[in-house]
Amino acid sequence: MARLEGNSLCARLIPFQHLYWAFALPLLRLSWLLQTLQFVFSMQSSFYNIYRERALIEQLTVIAHWTLVLTQYYFLPNYQVRLEYFLISQLFAGFLLSHVVTYNHYSTDKFPHNDPILSNYACLQLYTTRNMRPGLVIDWLWGGLNYQIEHHLFPTMPRHNLKKVMPLVKEFCAKNNLPYMVDDYFTGFKLTIKHLQNVADIASEFFQRKLSGG
Can you give the residue ranges of the Fatty acid desaturase domain (predicted)? Predict the structure, then answer.
């Protein structure tokens, strides 16, 4: 909260974040796109050797991807249609991606920076991640990211294999008395809203105290 002091924009926006957050989700796609480009084209100077080794192939594949995307736009009738196609496809993709990510993460408990759980990789993932209950539509719509627990435990595993390891993860949790949180869409959505509202209430109280000189 200390970093928010004096930030009038945050003071106006955060207390109402649970009301508007869903409408801001599409913009995250554009943010993640810029972050991807920034990260990939700085990999050659990374501290990690594995990133430096893979820098060229990552950069070439990103260039190839966007070459194919822009080639599609070339065959569209005019610039207006191209712009509309780009915005609709990217913003809708952004909504889906960021919606499942917020569901997976914001609907769970949060821990302080010095909590012992932070030193246990498996426990940290299991206590801070919630899966969206699998199904034909859910799996197709979110492309496997609804198996976020498995994705966190095995971050390099191809998404089409996450469903296969789900029973193994459940078995591990049962044997070790660990939670395995998986809920339907609406339950997780309500928990996400509740978390955002709790943070909004804390922020609102904080800003009110600052305004009153407390």
Answer: 20-181
